Amino acid sequence: MLRIAVPNKGSLSERATTILSEAGYRQRRDPKELVLVDAENEVEFFYLRPRDIAVYVGSGDLDLGVTGRDLLLDSGADAVEVLPLGFGSSTFRFAARPGTVSTVRDLAGRRIATSYAGLVRSHLADHGVTAEVIRLDGAVETAIRLGVADVIADVVETGATLRQQGLEIVAEPILRSEAVVIRGKGRSESGEDHRVDQLMRRINGVLVARRYVMLAYDVEMARLDEAVAMTPGIEGPTISPLHKEGWVAVQAMVPRDETNRIMDALYDLGARAILVTSIHACRL
Ligand SMILES: Nc1ncnc2c1ncn2[C@@H]1O[C@H](COP(=O)(O)OP(=O)(O)OP(=O)(O)O)[C@@H](O)[C@H]1O
Ligand SMILES: O=P(O)(O)OC[C@H]1O[C@H](OP(=O)(O)OP(=O)(O)O)[C@H](O)[C@@H]1O
Ligand SMILES: [Mg+2]
User: Fold this and answer.
1) Which residues of 222-253 are buried (b: 16+ CB within 10 A; e: fewer)?
2) Does residue 89 line the site of ligand 2, with CB under 6 A?
3) Is residue 197 in some structural domain?
4) CATH code, 271
5) 269 partner at 20 to 30 Å CA-CA among 33, 92, 106, 235?
6) Cα angle, residue 23 at apex, residues 18 and 24 outer, rounded to 5°
7) Where is the ATP phosphoribosyltransferase catalytic domain (predicted)?
């Protein structure tokens, strides 16, 4: 059995479970379930706190895990990122009362509250800055109001929490994070386990299906080269004959977020019957 860690709660949990379901793996229905066996795919899922996942994967007790890049780096575990998943995005930033700090150098000698002490300490060391790091479990924004810290370092998604606390972001971002698949450091070579390769291919298939749509249109042969330049597809677009003299039908995958721009440009070129369909899953 391949042993995979999945976040059991928090910001990453639901979307991690969804992506695994879409990739064809059994997932738990009851949030109290802590282990689930998918016998058909020879995989066992362990639902764990995302902060602990890097530790289990780093020690080799679990083969793979889904966690945040920030949590992986904070843990210092012997694990590496193998696939970014495109959700759970955040930046990790310093914040302070307006007018108190502006650059990382100004943090020297300050008290910095954070739940990610490993990440903050290594960032300060990289910049040659010495400061006191106070590790708290959560709600670190309040530490400034209560006089425990001068600065905080925390996950920022929308920035609403900081605004609400009257704090402003200071200095450069410490890190840009998102959910990632991780493996133990000694085991990052692919090809050693077909179940790992299969999982990666399946998840990649879901990610590509989310990022691309299938575009089909009819265009005059005379404009085909220009049209194909706009819709090069992955290998190359499919060109089929059309029951209309001098016209062809074209089919190609295009990035979902460029769909409307491309459709407008194709229409201007004279293409017609321009249709967009979703891709449910794929193997490229
Ligand atoms: N708004 C957000 N708040 C917290 N973490 C977020 C947010 N958006 C994305 N993340 C990412 O989620 C991961 C943290 O998840 P985790 O479950 O530990 O914390 P959480 O979502 O704050 O849950 P809880 O506070 O209940 O423990 C990190 O990788 C972080 O970058
Ligand atoms: O930029 P935003 O969209 O406001 O999101 C970021 C905030 O959300 C998280 O807190 P959470 O609610 O998880 O509480 P916690 O500090 O107790 O973990 C995080 O620690 C920040 O405080
Ligand atoms: Mg939190």
Assistant:
1) eebeebbebbebeeebebeebeeeebbbbbbb
2) no
3) no
4) 3.30.70.120
5) 235
6) 100
7) 49-204
Widest CA span of the chain, in angstroms?
Answer: 79
> Do residues 35 and 163 both lie within one domain?
no
Residues with CB under 6 A from ligand 1: 7, 9-12, 50-51, 68, 70-71, 88, 90, 138, 155, 157, 177
DSSP percent split of the chain into helix, strand, coil, nearest 5: 35, 35, 35
* Lowest-pLDDT choice from 50-59, 83-92, 193-202: 193-202
Same domain, 94 and 172: yes
The CATH number assigned to the domain holding 59 equals 3.40.190.10
Where among 155, 188, 221 does a domain terminate? 188
| Beta carbon of 161 within 6 Å of any ligand 2 atom | yes
To test the pocket of ligand 1, the residue of 6, 12, 72, 178 to mutate (highest count of ligand atoms within 8 Å of its CB) is: 12
Ligand 2 pocket, residue 159 CB under 6 Å: yes
Nearest Cα neighbor of 95 from 157, 136, 177, 154 is 154
Based on the fold, state whether residues 76 and 149 are members of the same structural domain.
no
Same domain, 68 and 182: yes
Q: Is there a single domain that holds both residue 80 and residue 107?
A: no
Q: Identify the residue whose tokens are 């996942």.
A: 53
In a domain, 203, yes or no: no
pLDDT in tens, 182-225: 999 977 555 568 899 999 999 999 999 999 999 999 999 999 99
In a domain, 237, yes or no: yes
Q: Which residue has the tokens 């790091």?
A: 133
